[in-house]
């Protein structure tokens, strides 16, 4: 081996114990404490140390951010839970307010609606109030009718929006009336009935522009259909109207012209086969249109036998009905109040007593038999034989209340007057000549 090879071999030293391999010649400055090191430049060493410090700092910051995110996540979950609790509370409060508001409305429609608006259950607009009433969930039908029947502009606005919610397009008049009357119970006052039915007629004509010549004709025929329903299905009406009678009574009311016979036959058949069904359970539509004006117990003197018996009286539709008890379906007697009058009678043995007498009897001093009927114990209907009905109340206040209400019923039936006036109006127009 040459000297050069020997020198190179000697300079190649394996320092396995230090884990370092030194190749080639080294400067003696790199030898420290018997160990040999080969290092990078000082700049590279500084950069490496800086990167290590940065890496550690970033790792610490990432860890801190992870901890903060964990805290934020926990806070976010807490906030979400709180929001859900608040929402649940709000929903519970709204539901509770709705439930309370319905009860209030069914007792007093005005106060109930005021409460519902104050609690933000219903928005204070005629459109929203109308929609709430039209939905009608758990609302009393009579209360809805009472609210809609009010005469102030606000309530009339609600009524108009309420009627607009009905779509009568392509419906015959019977089905439209059935739909309309199922949503509420008409109030007893004639003016309120007139306003509601007038808006119904206008809406029906708007949805079906080719059926009637004007809303008045629709109005009159609507009531003719309603009366037909009562006449056909009320067991107290003995003589049922025929199709010919129904056609005859509606001649000339379509703005002076007759309705098509086929149309009237169709309406008649619809009513005959499928009478109106009212949600409040009234036996017939008469009770819907003319609510009892007054009712209560009174003591009545008999006809042939002058004994006094306690009876349940109902004043309705210009008639006075009396029953043995409030739960009876059939009256024991019916007193039509046309051409009658009521006055107080003075009887020391029977205080708080009034009597119903015939008007002609006052003119001629001689009393005639009052036109009335009653049922016997066997259920047979017979003509009454009273020349005067003497009735006793339980107090002076009750006596005066009954007398005032009977007198008001005797005086006039404004609804019938309005219906007759409108019928006269559409009958007198006559066909238009171009």
How many helix segments?
A: 15
The end-to-end distance, rounded to whole angstroms, is: 144 Å
Report the sheet-strand fraction. 5-15%
Query: What name goes with the CATH superfamily of the largest domain?
Result: Arf Nucleotide-binding Site Opener,domain 2
| Oligomer kind | single chain
Protein name: SEC7 domain-containing protein
GO biological process, one term: regulation of ARF protein signal transduction
Coiled coil: 41-75
InterPro entries: PH-like_dom_sf (IPR011993), PH_domain (IPR001849), Sec7_C_sf (IPR023394), Sec7_dom (IPR000904), Sec7_dom_sf (IPR035999)
Account of the protein in words:
By secondary structure, this protein is of the alpha+beta class. It folds into three domains: 3-28, no CATH class; 123-287, Arf Nucleotide-binding Site Opener, domain 2 (Orthogonal Bundle), CATH 1.10.1000.11; 293-416, Roll (PH-domain like). It has helices at 3-11, 42-107, 109-118, 126-135, 141-148, 153-164, 173-181, 190-207, 215-233, 243-249, 261-273, 285-289, 359-364, 396-411, 414-429, and strands spanning 13-15, 20-22, 31-32, 35-36, 294-301, 308-316, 319-323, 333-336, 340-345, 353-358, 373-375, 381-383, 388-392. A nine-stranded antiparallel beta sheet has the order 9-10-13-5-6-7-8-11-12. A hairpin with a 2-residue loop joins strand 6 (308-316) and strand 7 (319-323). Helix 2 (42-107) runs antiparallel to helix 3 (109-118). The protein is elongated, with a radius of gyration of 47 Å.
